Amino acid sequence: MRTAKTFRPGKSRIFTSTVTAALTAGVVAVAMATPVAAADDPAGSAAQFHTATVLFKGNNVESLNGISYHTFRIPAIVRTNAGTLLAFAEGRAKSNKDYGNINLVYKRGVNDGAAASDWSSLKEAVGAGAGTWGNPTPVVDRSTGTIWLFLSWNAADKSQSGGANPDTGAATTAITKWGERRVYVMKSTNDGQTFTGMDGSASPTDMTESLLPKTKANGSAWAWDAMGPGNGIYTANGTLVIPAQHRNIYSTDHGATWRVQKLSEPTGEATITELADGSLYRNDRPTTTTWNTAKRRWVARGSIAGGFSAYSPDDKLLDPVNQASVLQYNNDAPSRTIFLNSASTENRRQMRVRISYDNARTWPNSRPLSEGPLPSGAGTEGGYSSMTKTADYRIGALVESNLNVDASSTSSRSVLFRKFNLSWILHGCTC
Q: Which end of the chain is more exposed for a tag (fewer CB within 10 A), N or C?
């Protein structure tokens, strides 16, 4: 049992809360008193709630199919129609590097992921061969219940920039040609118990030919590529949309066919949500060149039918050239859009969650995740993230952590599962 602690939620909310943190079944929970100053949002009157657990444990703690995983990175989470939480991650066998023997693993959470015991042991979506399966980007078809899972793949002798394969020591060559990085699709029709190819076979379906454009706008080969990573969306009109590098991948027939909508190219890793006004909102990681012009997240708005605006920086959303996550929490008044990233231009350790009430145009309320509980053995939190709305109206967030920031080039990585309510965010600051 940890001792009581005083939280300082932010300059604009001066109050003292007594916090009791309990370590139960691997989950750290925090209960807080109602502050003197309440937010205008009626959700602010609810008791604050925030729990955290280490869901994917790196440093060779978790094993599957004979592999003890050094690192888990690149998380994604969705809630199925049955209310099950599906948490995905890249399982990196022998290092934290972005290439080598990397498998796509996941866990199923019941009871809204309330306790560590509510999560399954490690499961594998795909791990065939010694190459890299990564960038999980799932979406749930709310009409049929099918869970679609998009991912990127490259062979064991390839990587984004070259370097020695951490598993074999053999040299890899940089990906420079179309098709060396590929697009694969899987699906589950049994609430995430198992995943198959589109045709029901055990192997993922290679969709590179139809979903990976051959050339970029300047005529160069479309060589490197990335799905998401994070979440796709099921829109109000039943369209499935997967955010991907420089494009949206979408289906209007429940996944029977998939098409590409090309976008402009100043960004890389992508997020998407459907806002309360019905528009689609891309919030992306800028390329290094783009980031140097404005060290912020870059956003674009539009629709599948009507196209998207040009990307522009959101001055409020500081960014250290990293992935982020966005979630449309609700559309009824007051509508709320939730955004999570490292709010820094210098490092990935300043994770902050924000709320917008005007279709992601302003972000008046926010709170750093560091003011929430941190489980024992969690390491230093920060990096990639993914969010979903749980069936009990809370926000479930996966966030990366570094187990040794003093040796980041070789350190193991884990993934935390945080669960908090709107009130917890609202008792942060108007900043």
A: N
pLDDT tens, 120-131? 999 999 999 999
- Of 389, 355, 391, 397, the C-alpha closest to 372 is 397
- With a cut of 50, list the residues of the chain below it in pLDDT: 1-25, 30-39
Distance between CA atoms of residues 289 and 309, nearest Å: 20
Choose among 246, 252, 249, 273: nearest CA to 260: 249
User: What single letter denotes the amino acid at residue 192?
Assistant: G
Size (the chain), residues = 431
Helix ranges, 29-161 (H): none
Three-class secondary structure of residue 288 per DSSP: helix
pLDDT digits (tens, 9 = 90+) for 11-36: 333 222 333 333 334 555 544 433 32
Predicted TM-score of the model (pTM): 0.92
> Parallel, antiparallel, or unpaired for β 296-303 and 312-318?
antiparallel
Tell me which residue of 147, 130, 141 sits closest to 76, measured CA to CA: 147
Question: Helices then strands (H, E): number in the chain?
Answer: 3, 33
- Supply the DSSP symbol for 11: T
Q: Which stretch of DSSP H or E encloses residue 325?
A: strand 325-330
What pairs with residue 89 in β-bridges? 105
